[in-house]
Amino acid sequence: MVLTLVGLGLHDERDVSIRGLEAIREADVVYLENYTATLNVNTSRLERFFEKPIVLADRDFVEGNADTMLEAAVDKRVVCLVVGDPFWSVAEFKKTHLATTHADLYLRARQRGVAVKVIHNASIMSAVAACGLQLYRFGETVSIPFFDGNWKPVSFYDKIKKNRENNMHTLCLLDIKVKEQTVENMMKGNNIFEPPRFMTVNVAIKQLLEAAAMKNDEGAEEILAFGLARVGADNQAIVSGEI
């Protein structure tokens, strides 16, 4: 029948649009994609507000069982809730061909002949302007992943440097780890998951400076940066200073 991707905005259940709320309450099945980003409220609170049970679509589900969602949408009204805006990561999808994005769900549903609707909402891609920087001066957005032992991917630093050379700002999205397994548990087939981890601004700065050292790039300490947390919430935090 239809798959509707509904953006939830940045903070809590009250950020959903009226169109989004109507789609949710009319749905036969509601999923919440909850591993690429998180809201500041739990699932129970969302269920009470939306008056609908919610099925959590974690990483395992999206990567391995998304067909369940698409099959249901053939003859049911299915809603997939997305923190922020459903399509904020389309550019990243086109570049990396990852099969875990909301854009991929959209394309696969269309290939199956399922009608797809998208209800947009605010995302960090626009809300970052709360720090006072002008959006048209932003270059390519980067993601900073957690370093893990000897695994230290630093390609993000090259993009930051390129943006600086072009006199552009860089939005750095910080890593989150939700329902992740250690390599050992994955190899043993143990259904054991690590506690959730959310990268702090301090950790991101530490890794950025480490990446600069690995690239033999001097002067990174003098970069003026803004740190933003909980944007859109009443207790949002925005700070600035040299790295």
From TrEMBL:
Its EC number is 2.1.1.314. Pfam families: TP_methylase. It is an enzyme of class 2 (transferase). Belongs to the diphthine synthase family. This is diphthine methyl ester synthase. It comes from the Eukaryota. Keywords: Methyltransferase, S-adenosyl-L-methionine, Transferase. One of its GO terms (molecular function) is diphthine methyl ester synthase activity. S-adenosyl-L-methionine-dependent methyltransferase that catalyzes four methylations of the modified target histidine residue in translation elongation factor 2 (EF-2), to form an intermediate called diphthine methyl ester. The four successive methylation reactions represent the second step of diphthamide biosynthesis. Pathway: Protein modification; peptidyl-diphthamide biosynthesis.
